[in-house]
Amino acid sequence: MNENVKIGLEIHVQLNKLKSKMFCGCSTDYHDAPPNTHVCPVCLGLPGSLPTINKKAVEYALKVALALNCEVETRTHFYRKNYFYPDLPKNFQISQYDFPIGSNGYVEIEGDNGAKVVRIKRVHMEEDPGRLVHIGTIDRSRYTLVDYNRSGMALLEIVTEPDMGSPKEARSFLAKLRSILEYLDVFDGDKEGAMRIDANISIEGNERAEVKNISSHKGVEKALQYEIIRQRNILRRGGRIVRETRHFDEERNITISMRLKEEEEDYRYFPEPDLPPFSVVDWVPVIRETIPELPDEKRDRFISQYGISEALAKALTSDHKIADLFEDVASEFEPKLVAGWVADVLKGELNYRGLSLDVFPPSYMKEILKMLVSDEITDRGAVIVIRKVLDEGLTPQEVIEREGLRKAGESELETVVRDVLKNNTKAVEDYRAGKKEALNFLVGQVIRNTKGRADPKLARKMIEEMIENLA
Amino acid sequence: MSVITKDVLEHLLWLSKLSVSEEEKERILTQLNSVLEYFSILDELEIEDVEPMYHVAGLVNVFREDEVEPSLSQEEVLKNAPKTENGFIKTPRMM
Ligand SMILES: [Zn+2]
């Protein structure tokens, strides 16, 4: 149904693993700070202040450009992009223009019909504007509040070609990009405002609309779904799509037409006179060395090295922290067993709670698997342990003791089985008479009486033997 | 020959968020055009074989290390702002 839809993305990514901002020494650690406490004359654009380029920011940008298979510009410089808006205290943004640090790259994603290549048009560096807070909704607020703590954060703008054919593919691209950026250790996607996305979308043969400043991957998918319906409806009624900028209202899941978009020439780009040009192409071999194994390579290695399925390998490698935990635990336990528990159970429980892996060290997984392999807890018990650890911050041992999850030993089980048989003579008779369902009932009783700690297989065997012996 | 027409001027004023009187517009229009006319002398130069120069100092690769330095206090930051609210700078409504 989406074969004639073309989607391109422009992604703004904060290089938030840096300690300081792009052009000044202000700390990047402002997320829990009061407004306007992480600013200095440079990022506040006070007259006479002079920016200086953060070397590590350029290294990070280069690292990203290389990981996205881009060509690197031999000589580049910054520009001033001029526009008046209160998020820019200088009335211009220091950005790049005709010599972006990287261009003509590509990323392979999981498309709607298998693997797909999305071309990267350019990767360039710029500074983040401040944060605007609108009182009430954006189209109705009476005034605007400005916090410049974010102003001057090192930002990468990554622009794709319109190669995605559906909202789902756009989301798949974003997930892949985030994964790569986190593997590179230049980006923490959990931080608020770390990634902001502009999405342009057209139905082939028509003008495109651009939806600005969407803050979540899910938001991008929703905004694009809405746009497809809106644009199709206009065309169905014989109307024309106008080229325009739209805003996504995350609460109402709709897009709204915004101000007239400035034309490129309106930005009156000119070379930033305060920053000398730079040439970093010599750094490429050194920076390339610092690029770790990326998600796709890791996935392929996991399949061949551990003999696990492609689906499991994908699930394990989409997040580098999950992948590291898996490898750590798989060095001590059967990899296939570990893969299932980490990818299917642990990852699922983390996602469900919106938690990152930081709360669950590899030693926890090892403890749980050790008890599982030595038959001290059941599969069901192991799942409960994982859930309670995540929900209540307990250690696995604490959960096992408190919830009484240790499997019933043979002698305990024997007592329980004997009791169950004594109290359910009717079922015992039925079983003797050839009714196999009666056995399931008795096993169920044993499990109930042990509060789930009985191993069903062992209970079944004991019941059979005991009835045999009674006869 | 006028390069800047009335329409172009209106557009520039919109970009600069400036509002000026009709009288001033006439005056600015004349001034802008004479400035541009003066600069048109440069069009006569032969620059086919000249590399563009983006920066006058001749410096290249001037960087700083990724080190944190102290920021200003909130009080200092807000000192020049005409209006503030709860530590924020207050501006007219923006779209
Ligand atoms: Zn600063």
Structural description of this entry:
The complex is a heterodimer of chains A (471) and B (95). With 471 residues, chain A is an alpha+beta fold. Chain A has 3 domains: 5-287, no CATH class; 293-403, no CATH class; 410-470, Arc Repressor Mutant, subunit A. Helices cover 40% and strands 19% of the residues of chain A. Chain A is built from 15 helices and 15 strands. Chain A has helices at 55-67, 167-183, 217-236, 284-289, 295-306, 310-317, 320-330, 335-353, 362-373, 379-392, 396-403, 410-423, 425-432, 437-449, 456-470; strands spanning 5-14, 53-54, 71-72, 79-82, 92-95, 102-111, 114-127, 131-134, 143-147, 154-160, 195-203, 209-214, 244-249, 254-257, 270-271. In chain A, the strands form 3 sheets. A 9-stranded mixed sheet of chain A has the order 3-6-7-10-1-11-12-13-14. In chain A, strands 5-4-15 form a 3-stranded antiparallel sheet, with no helix packed on it. In chain A, a hairpin with a 4-residue loop joins strand 13 and strand 14. The longest helix of chain A is centred in the middle third of the chain and has 20 residues, at 217-236. Chain A is elongated. Chain A starts with a strand and ends with a helix. The mean pLDDT of chain A is 92. Chain B has a domain at 6-43. The longest helix of chain B is centred in the N-terminal third of the chain and has 18 residues, at 22-39. Chain B has a two-stranded antiparallel sheet. In chain B, strand 2 (84-85) and strand 3 (88-92) form a beta hairpin. Chain B is flat. Chain B is α+β, with helices and mostly antiparallel strands and 95 residues long. The interface between A and B is large, with 54 and 37 residues. Strand 9 (143-147) of chain A pairs antiparallel with strand 3 of chain B, so a sheet runs across the interface. Zinc ion (ZN) binds next to loops of chain A. Residues 21, 24, 26, 39-40, 42-43, 152 of chain A line the site of zinc ion.
